[in-house]
Amino acid sequence: MLKNLSIRNFALIDNVDLDFDKGLTVITGETGSGKSILLGALHLLLGNRADFSVIRNQEAKTVVEGHWMIGDYNLSGFFASKELEYDPYCIIRREILPQGKSRAFVNDTPVPLSVLKELTDKLVQINSQHQTLQLKDKSFQLNLLDVLGSCIPELEAYKEAFDAYKAQEKLIRELETGLSESLQQQDYIRFQVEELEKLNFKENNYDELILELKKSENAEFLLKNIQESVEITDSGDGIVALLKRLENLLRKSAQFDESLQEYENRISSVVIEMNDISAELNNYAEGIAVNPGRLDWLVGVVDDFQRILKKHNKKDQVELKSYLDELSGQNESFSALEEKLEKEHKKLEKFFGNWQQAGKILSEKRRKVAPVIVKEILPLLEELKLEGSRAEFRFTEKTNADRSGFESVDLCFSPNQGVAIQPIDKSASGGELSRFMLAVMTLFSERKQLPTLIFDEIDTGVSGDVAGRIGLLLRKMGTHRQLMAITHLPQVAASGHIHLSVNKSTQSNRTVTEVIRLTEEDRIVEIAKLMSGKNLTDAAQENAAVLLKTHGN
């Protein structure tokens, strides 16, 4: 329950402090006096975006602060979840700084607007003329049915099942797109894999085969050169003969100088090495033989290898083999993708079943509670002088179900006996809409158990006895909760437990809005003004006194 509201430096308001209590608080004032400013300050506390033009004195900040008693509303868990200090006496403050910044606080702890909105949504609700017009909106009508019919748990379960099904549909579409793109590439990739597999990397070492091909293609040249090399080594005047002669000379000389023995030994080693080289070259020459069939095979294999190497821009067999493994992996991924798609389709069937079941449960609950809600609304409409009115919720199956369910709803209404019932946007006048909305909000406030409910000119379009009945209904609602009503009707104003008057005046060449809590005597004058305007008469004041006595008790 809102206990106090203070407003500083907000639009035409310099400084206002208001105390509130249980019951019905009525707020009156001439058109343009500043009632909308008071509501604007409240909206700021409820988390609306800041309008920096409301700062009256640009050298000071705007502050709106509300004090709430929240001990009876089980909010300690909410405070804990937001890491806020809980106190049954909760202070909510909003500041707008001239520098273009806005700040929000809960019990002096800074909070983002999202948290502020989430908290105040549990504390207060403002119903305006605009929201009355929402009665014509089918989505609002459906939400009305769900709230008043306690269908929210079924609706949330339905949304969860619907979202799961739609998410699975999206996943399958993505998988199918990926598979389609993959299948377009698969034939080409399969061709590449087959082409690379023909190179037979397990059996062929292409570095060795390239060397063998070079040797085979140049066999005649190699044989001639090797034979010549052997002759240079082994002929009578060849390298070996010369080395042996050198070895003999050193051996003889070493008899006279032992230091030459080392050179003799080294030459001896060279002789042995040269003999080995000569023998190996002879063996190499004997092994040079050209097999025309093998040569043709080598030419074909190496040409294929080098062509494919160039085609894929790889530098060697290792890179080409790695590329083959990569392509083979892609082929395997195609199969895995097909298997995954099959599994996800089975999941989709399950999600579809869950969605359909949740939708069926929600639809059955809605159709069951709809006539019950109507039975609750009709007595309230009778109280508001709509005797004989009829109402019903008509259901239409949707071609394409969405997050709100399988059906759309038409709230249908007939304000008079003998008049055909039809959608409320075609059958209700402005005043009838206001009364219907008041009846709905009466039920809604009971369901939601909001601490504070505010009506902004909910009585628009009515007068006379109907206005009196609205006032009595609001007063009755105010016995169970804190209720505020901005009104132009004397009957409603007379029904309040507390009466606030909003006035605009000029002080020191400045226009100022003030909010005053009226005494009983002041109320008579204020209500009389609502009856007769500025020309206040004794008769109007007498009527105001009677109205206060009949509606205020």
TrEMBL record:
This is DNA repair protein RecN. It comes from the Bacteria. It holds the Pfam family SMC_N. May be involved in recombinational repair of damaged DNA. Keywords: ATP-binding, Coiled coil, DNA damage, DNA repair, Nucleotide-binding. PANTHER family: DNA REPAIR PROTEIN RECN (PTHR11059:SF0). InterPro entries: DNA_recomb/repair_RecN, P-loop_NTPase, RecF/RecN/SMC_N. Residues 1-504 form the RecF/RecN/SMC N-terminal domain. Belongs to the RecN family. CDD domains: ABC_RecN. Transmembrane segments: none annotated. It comes from Wandonia haliotis. The lineage of its organism: Bacteria, Pseudomonadati, Bacteroidota, Flavobacteriia, Flavobacteriales.
